[in-house]
Amino acid sequence: MTNNTEAPFEARLRGLSALIVGATGGIGLAIAEAFAEAGARLVMHGRDRARAEARASELRSLGADVSTICEDLSGGEPSRALLEAAASADILVVAYGPFVYKPLSETKGADWRLTALACLALPGTLATEAAAAMAARGSGRILLFGGTRTDAIRGFKANAAYAAAKTGIGVLAKSIAVEFGGKGVSCAVLCPGFVDTEYLDATTRERLGNASPRGGLIPSGEIARLALYLASGGMELANGSIIVADRGLYSL
Question: Which CATH number does the domain 10-245 belong to among 1.10.1040.10, 3.40.50.720, 3.50.50.60, 1.20.120.1770?
Answer without folding.
Answer: 3.40.50.720
